Amino acid sequence: MSIISRKKVLLGISGGIAAYKTPLLVRALIKKGAEVKVVMTPSAIDFVTPLTLSTLSRNPVLSSFTEAGQDDHPEWNNHVDLALWADLMLIAPATSNTISAMVKASCNNLLLACYLSSKRPVFVAPAMDLDMYAHPANQSNLEQLKINGCYVFPAEEGFLASGLEGKGRMIEPEDMVLQLENILLSKAPLVNKKVLITAGPTYEPIDPVRFIGNHSSGKMGYALANHAASLGAQVVLVSGPTSLTIENSMINLIKVTSSKEMFEAVFAHYHQVDIAIASAAVADFKPAKVASQKIKKHDGAESIELIETQDILSEMGRTKKDQFLVGFALETENEEANALVKLKKKNADAIVLNSLNDKDAGFGGDKNKITFISKNNEKKTFELKPKTEVAADIFSEILSCI
Ligand code: CTP
Question: Rounded distance, CA 330 to CA 332, Å?
């Protein structure tokens, strides 16, 4: 399966003669399994028809901020939504005008508005005549795009539309897709790997309406799942009850409620994965008996007998084969020493220590402060930061261990 498969590609076409090759580019992306949407600058329409591109991409092609909707009322083509929809943006061909506007943050067409709103990787395939391509203004603009985080496919040598020969041709569509695959692969160290993550709280039923639970939001586990997917992994996310949603074709979200359901969902997948991370706040105790009817006040239930839940992480550690297993430890005293004891007792390969002693860190909030401890007792403490960034830190530590 190609790394492009199921990727959402926003193709921006600007108005140069190389635009006539973009139907082949759309077809090559679709053949690899990508989902493609096309935005064009108004002048690109002179070189290739939107009908051809919409037929090949199986999506409407957009070229202006508004278009006629029902009863001729104009409808807004939301560039922010389009930019957020895409996993990556590809601007091909990128003309001198478009490149210069991208550098200056001019925003006079839909393609540029999408580019400026995009937070995803942007790939640029310049195409122009040889002298224009060699001009210091264009070369410095291309350098600036690289500094701004774009990947620039160098133009190729060959026969140009002007009749001249030289460097300025847009890279051929098939080669562009191959290079795109190679670049994405080099940035995706977990491609072909499977990752299992537990997240959120568990609810242990007392009767049909009551439960024992905790305040875990699941944000850390969901951030880990998103990050694993961005590194190319196929992810199984087993989540207790949370208000979070996740939409990513690389993530198989399995929703559970109790620790027993979490245990079963985990062990349906654990033996097929390469990395497992237990970030869930699994309840430690559950009622010994679950009442089949709502317990009434006059029944006088002053106490509920509790028994221990099964420890999912310990069971993963006990039955571990080649998986790299990471646990979490939430501690309030003797933090590192306690975390290390947990790591050994549960036979994990590393443990992420969350401290509740830091204001703004941990349960519920958007930030976390962690120390990553490997089984060789190598420690790395990170500053308080958003959980999305903490997830990236955790994976960079895991990658340095495996
Ligand atoms: N864990 C688990 N199953 C349980 C309890 C905990 O998988 N029934 C996992 C958590 O997901 C976490 C790690 O074990 O990765 C440590 O959880 P924590 O609550 O900090 O530790 P406990 O073992 O429950 O010990 P204690 O509450 O006494 O600190």
Answer: 7
